[in-house]
Specification:
Number of helices: 11
Number of strands: 4
CATH superfamily of the largest domain: Winged helix-like DNA-binding domain superfamily/Winged helix DNA-binding domain
CATH architecture of the largest domain: Orthogonal Bundle
Order of helices and strands: HHEEHHEEHHHHHHH
CATH topology of the largest domain: Arc Repressor Mutant, subunit A
Strand order of the largest sheet: 1-2-4-3
Helix content: 40-55%
Shape: elongated
Number of domains: 2
Radius of gyration: 23 Å
CATH class of the largest domain: Mainly Alpha
Distance between the termini: 54 Å
Length: 256
């Protein structure tokens, strides 16, 4: 019987010298960011390679840490100038951070830690820095024209959300329509759950369905847009009082 602590996949390799120079947790994060920076989804902007992700999605790649720990590690790397951050998102409301590594500062830190070493990063250091945690998901940002591959989980959730909305309204919205993908993926990246989307749909159907002026806003781009958190925070609707609003009440509307 094979021991559970033996790996079938390539394990994470940590460069000891880098970990001693900047800290173990910081070295792990820097390695993973470097991996994404040298992948096919990285974007070159102003002569520098960038990648992006939310803290929640980083947490999926570092499941052995809490979000608080991840925030602290990223903050430490930024404060030391080893990690450069920016915002190149298409929409202003998207606060997803973009990340790049200041290789010169990393090299200098390694040189400071080892006075006998070169002021440049040795080939072995660079190779070890690029060793990734085995990736189980690929990250996405709908705000940059899908420059990173979309994970199956996001696609499935979006389908379920649109399916629920169509069932309630009798509509035929498409989960892969550009505007629908943009707003839904943005909310998912912010950490909202499937139940949160269903709550917003139920609440706003109850609020707007009988209003000719407001019923036209029962659509993904409005329901799941920037005001989503406000809609979610409204008093939850008693489902028993809304049994008359079932499938087909909104028949005749066929939007994408």
């Amino acid at each position: 019987m094979k021991a559970t602590w033996l790996f079938d996949k390539h394990p994470l390799v940590i460069d000891v010298k880098l970990a001693q120079a900047i800290g173990l947790n910081e070295a792990i994060v820097l390695q993973q960011i470097n991996y994404w920076l040298h992948g096919r989804h990285a974007k070159k902007i102003n002569g520098r390679l960038w990648t992006y992700n939310s803290i929640k999605n980083w947490n999926e790649q570092f499941p052995f840490w809490s979000e608080r720990t991840i925030k602290r590690v990223f903050s430490s790397l930024e404060k030391d100038g080893l990690l450069v951050t920016g915002n190149f998102n298409k929409y202003k409301f998207d606060k997803t951070k973009w990340y790049s590594i200041d290789v010169n500062k990393v090299s200098n830190r390694l040189g400071q830690f080892d006075p006998m070493g070169s002021d440049k990063m040795a080939p072995s250091d660079s190779a070890n820095l690029a060793q990734p945690i085995p990736d189980t998901t690929e990250n996405t940002s709908e705000t940059n024209n899908n420059s990173q591959a979309e994970p199956d989980k996001t696609t499935q959730l979006r389908k379920e959300i649109i399916s629920y909305l169509n069932e309630k309204l009798g509509t035929k919205y498409k989960p892969n329509a550009s505007k629908n993908k943009t707003v839904i993926n943005a909310r998912l990246k912010e950490g909202y759950s499937l139940d949160d989307f269903k709550t917003v749909v139920d609440n706003k159907i109850a609020d707007w369905s009988n209003s000719p002026k407001m019923s036209k806003f029962l659509r993904p781009e409005t329901l799941f847009g920037p005001k989503f958190d406000g809609y979610l925070s409204e008093k939850r609707i008693n489902q028993k009082s809304n049994t008359h609003q079932g499938k087909g009440w909104f028949d005749g509307f066929n939007r994408e």
